Amino acid sequence: MTSATLAVGLAAVVPAAESGSGFEPPSLADFFPDAFLLAGTPFAINRIMMVRLIMTGVLVLFFGIGAARARVVPGRFQNVCEMLIDFARVNIAEEIIGKRRAQPYVPIITTIFLGVLFLNISGVIPGLNIAATSVIGMPIIFAVVAYIAFFYAGIKNHGVGGFLRSSVLPSGVPKVLWILIIPIEFLSNLIMRPVTLTIRLLANMVSGHFLLALCYAATSALFFTAAGALKGLGVVTFGVALAFVLFEVFVASLQAYIFALLTAVYIESSINTH
After folding, report:
1. 83, 193, 200, 181: which is closest to 139 by C-alpha?
2. What would the mean pLDDT of 196-212 be, rounded to a whole number?
3. Residue 2: its pLDDT value, please?
């Protein structure tokens, strides 16, 4: 996949180089392309939205095929599907929340993990070359889902009053410190959690796109417009681009794991009040 990704990335910047414009670095405009379908309506489709739809379809198709081909003795494809699901269930949900208490929340944690993973990985897929989570809309949606699960778990186990009290007022705090602790805990537990989930995912995907696009643009400029020995530096930037493709796959997977892990941690904290 890495070679094909590099080829497509180079193809995207070669026209600019051939037109004589030379090195053209990536910009924020990459994340706000013009709509090519239903422009001017709330349902406008641009490149980012198209990538989201494609990767959502790939996710559904991937596990749909796995379910349709399910056998008592699993094959390789079924093993991959089960490995991903079991990782989210065992290594995230049950590990953090506990095997018995985690069961109601396994579907949502698994959905968050797989959704973030597939939408992140589009950044290194040839022809797409941008993470579907690199614009703030999708990170916000995932964060809101995690936030709702956090509230649901707390209210279900402790009621509205008990959940809110435990969220803003840790047990054992002297009354004289309440005026200081309550605002801090309120901001930390009830306001900042979805914000930090959103920013963490968004920032990692945006920076990853900039690094990859910068390597593609530099390689193209050196190969096609540089003079003399400078063309040799294109080999260096090409190698760096290859390394960043592999690194971006790692980051995409890691961010999916962290997002699902923190969701499980927040749910666990709302169940087991302090």
Report:
1. 200
2. 93
3. 52
| pTM, rounded to two decimals | 0.86
Alpha-carbon distance of 135 to 202, in angstroms, equals 7
User: What average pLDDT score do residues 82-102 get?
Assistant: 95
How would you class 185 by CB atoms within 10 Å of its CB: exposed for 0-12, middle for 13-18, buried for 19 or more? middle
239-to-2, 8, 232, 235, 248 alpha-carbon distances in Å: 11, 15, 12, 6, 14
Distance separating alpha carbons of residues 233 and 23, to the nearest angstrom: 14
pLDDT digits (tens, 9 = 90+) for 208-263: 989 888 888 888 888 777 767 777 787 888 888 889 899 999 999 999 999 999 99
* CA distances for 49 relative to 53, 134, 208, 239, angstroms: 6, 11, 19, 31
Q: What is the spatial distance between Cα 195 and Cα 17, in angstroms, rounded to a whole number? A: 39
3-state helix, strand, coil in the chain (%, to 5): 80, 0, 20
Provide the CB-side half-sphere exposure for 5 (13 A, CA): 24
Residues with Cβ within 8 Å of residue 186, at least 6 apart in sequence: 167, 168
**Token pair in block for residue 228:** 């003399």
